[in-house]
Design brief:
Length: 106
């Protein structure tokens, strides 16, 4: 499965409070997402590659594209769901995403 890529103008951004800090979120097709990482216009391939890595881990992802750059968003539901089976890697949390994303490019 491939990540969804949408125009930034088609999503609704908002801020929310999680773990003592304000995070950025967005709504797309009645689903809520948290911002995982933003990329410049020249880093399109890197943004898509990192989104694909998250999809391979079973995390629902949306990539938004704008005139400024790209953003990778992860489903808020995936951050709170407990997997049915025990797996080697636990489900990612919002605080663990930047470090996990860095590992994808290594």
């Amino acid at each position: 499965m491939l990540p969804i890529v949408v125009n930034e103008e088609l999503v609704h951004r908002f801020n929310f409070y999680l773990h003592t800090s304000v995070k950025q979120g967005m709504r797309h097709q009645d689903e809520l997402y948290a911002l995982a990482q933003e990329f410049s216009q020249t880093a399109r391939l890197t943004a898509y590659q990192k989104a694909c890595e998250l999809v391979e881990q079973g995390v629902p992802v949306v990539v938004t594209a704008s005139s400024v750059g790209y953003a990778v968003w992860v489903s808020l539901r995936s951050l709170t769901q407990v997997p049915e089976k025990t797996t080697r890697q636990p489900r990612p949390t919002l605080s663990s995403l930047p470090s996990r994303l860095e590992l994808c490019s290594a």
